[in-house]
């Protein structure tokens, strides 16, 4: 099972976004954090910037919407050029309908859970998704420390994915670095969002390769990956 590295432009230089997007050669996706200063206490960017980024890079965009009224706004990010759109379970009034609408418009549908939100109530929704995002920090700001208490939740989510035989990506976001990525992979994650660990490096593309190698080695040795 191949691991994927998604650099987060939240840690990039916003004055040079087009250049920063191309600086992470070899990345699988470019992770775009959209914040509205309501769902989270921070304000970042919106549809026009996503449209511009989609034109500036060949790397597909993975838009993580940390916004209220996700049911209204998420489809617009597909239209703006996102290849994957993540809405928060806590912000969606009708998550199944929203996931189906995102898919119908041609993008991958993903749902995110804040650290305090359990996975178990959403077990029946998993077949409607292409990816599930487990937040490993409180959403809102980059540069936070990884929450180790999320590792059991990652494991339980991987068990549910295996239980239902789903081809569902399991993404982690928050504090992912060379020091934490192996623990995430061992627990069951296969898509890794990394911000400062990539854009804070002297060579962002080399940082992507190094993170991929660490995650791949941990995955190969992980009990959950045996037989895949």
TrEMBL record:
Substrate binds at residues 8, 64, 140-143, 173-175, 195-196. One of its GO terms (molecular function) is D-ribulose-phosphate 3-epimerase activity. Keywords: Carbohydrate metabolism, Isomerase, Metal-binding. It comes from the Bacteria. Belongs to the ribulose-phosphate 3-epimerase family. The active site is at residues 33, 173. Its cofactor is Zn(2+); Co(2+); Mn(2+); a divalent metal cation. A divalent metal cation binds at residues 31, 33, 64, 173. PROSITE patterns: RIBUL_P_3_EPIMER_1, RIBUL_P_3_EPIMER_2. Binds 1 divalent metal cation per subunit. Pathway: Carbohydrate degradation. It catalyses: D-ribulose 5-phosphate = D-xylulose 5-phosphate. Catalyzes the reversible epimerization of D-ribulose 5-phosphate to D-xylulose 5-phosphate. This is Ribulose-phosphate 3-epimerase. Pfam families: Ribul_P_3_epim. Its EC number is 5.1.3.1. NCBIfam families: PRK05581.1-4, rpe.
